[in-house]
Amino acid sequence: MPEASLAPALLVAMPQLLDPNFHRSVVLLLEHRTEDGTLGIVLNREADMSLGEVYTPDAARHARYLAALERHQRLDERV
């Protein structure tokens, strides 16, 4: 059975969120997988790159690879 995905979705930060990376942000959730991680774009901030430069099929695969690598590193730390 395929896992349920939370994407696509818009995430709007609550005023109480003080993390400077997400304070007052609106995030477009592009991909969400329990095993591979989540990929989103902050919509209400300026960036030096266009969406086409950031989100490519290769970039999505790379993000999933990094998420998997991080997961394995956390598992190794538990041992």
List the helices and strands and how they pair.
Elements: E1 9-12, E2 26-33, E3 37-42, H1 51-54, H2 57-78
Antiparallel strand pairs: 1-2, 2-3
What does this structure look like?
The protein has 79 residues and is of the alpha+beta class. Helices cover 33% and strands 23% of the residues. The protein is built from two helices and three strands; from the N terminus they run βββαα. The protein has helices at 51-54, 57-78; strands spanning 9-12, 26-33, 37-42. The chain has a three-stranded antiparallel beta sheet with strand order 1-2-3. A hairpin with a 3-residue loop joins β2 and β3.
**What oligomeric state best describes the polypeptide chains here?**
single chain
Count of beta strands: 3
Q: Which class best fits the helix and strand makeup? A: alpha+beta
Strand order of the largest sheet: 1-2-3
Strand content: 15-25%
Task: Return the average pLDDT rounded to an integer.
Answer: 77
Poorly predicted parts = none
Order of helices and strands: EEEHH
How many separate helices?
Answer: 2
The radius of gyration over CA amounts to 15 Å
Shape: globular
- The end-to-end span amounts to 31 Å
Roughly what percent helix? 25-40%
Largest sheet, in brief, is:
3 strands, antiparallel
Summarize the structure.
This protein has helices at residues 51-54, 57-78; strands at 9-12, 26-33, 37-42.
Give keywords.
79 residues; alpha+beta; three-stranded antiparallel β-sheet; 2 helices
